[in-house]
Amino acid sequence: MNEIGFAALDNPPPETPGVEALWQRLRCDARRAAEAEAELRGFLDQAVLLQPSFAAALAALLAAKLAGAGVSAERLRQIAVSSMAEDTEIEAAALADLAAICMRDPAADGCLTPFLYYKGFHALQWHRVGHYLWRHRRRDLARFLQSRVSEIFAVDIHPAVPVGRGVFIDHGTGLVVGETAVIGDDVSILHDVTLGGTGKERGDRHPKVRDGVLLSAGAKVLGNVEIGRRAKVGAGSVVLHDVPPCATVAGVPAKIVGWCTGSVPALDMDQSLPDREG
Known about the structure:
Layout: H1 19-36, H2 41-49, H3 54-66, H4 73-86, H5 88-104, H6 112-117, H7 119-135, H8 139-153, E1 155-157, E2 168-169, E3 175-177, E4 182-183, E5 188-189, E6 194-196, E7 208-209, E8 214-215, E9 220-222, E10 226-227, E11 232-233, E12 238-239, E13 247-250, E14 255-259, H9 265-268
Parallel strand pairs: 1-3, 2-5, 3-6, 4-7, 5-8, 6-9, 7-10, 8-11, 9-12, 11-13
Antiparallel strand pairs: 13-14
């Protein structure tokens, strides 16, 4: 079982590269990019080439993206650095998230592009910092980070939400995740997805998304429902009830239209649906 209580996938994805291996790959790619585009040299120096480590580079990049509203980039960098130093899971999860993008996104020509430019990745890493702060009762700061991330990246995840490793938020625009939701390992989420409440409940009222799930573009999952391991939710669907493991659901309201056959939808990133009969 992983840290948030989900069983591991039967056929787990390839092992995440070690931090040093991925860091050296980023540096190599950044040097090539700087040689190819002299205009980017200063940016790449500050983002990667002059940074001493992956964690330092990530903290500096995240801070530069979010600075403003009376909080400097340096102060934000310090918040990210100290959070990652106190909770090593943040950096480990960030590595797994970045590796997931490199493996799943055909538009990612290496890991440098998503590291520098993918706002879904940036929003998720700020969420991991905010979740750490939330758990340590620094909730005003966690809410501030949530608000700034929503303003800058159009991704709104409540800082109370636990998120597993190897999560790919593709594009990210319009993603909303409510306070009592849970997101497992190796999940892929496309843009305009909502993991929300029904609007009439209190307490535990948001979805629980298990390992290996694919939430396709525009999917709305509402209420304290469970999306079982390796399930797929079709684009534009509205889910109001539990989804069994390995099921593919689609429609408004969503109904079962198929089943996975040994594959992991989140890793395959295939949003197509089986032909519906009847």
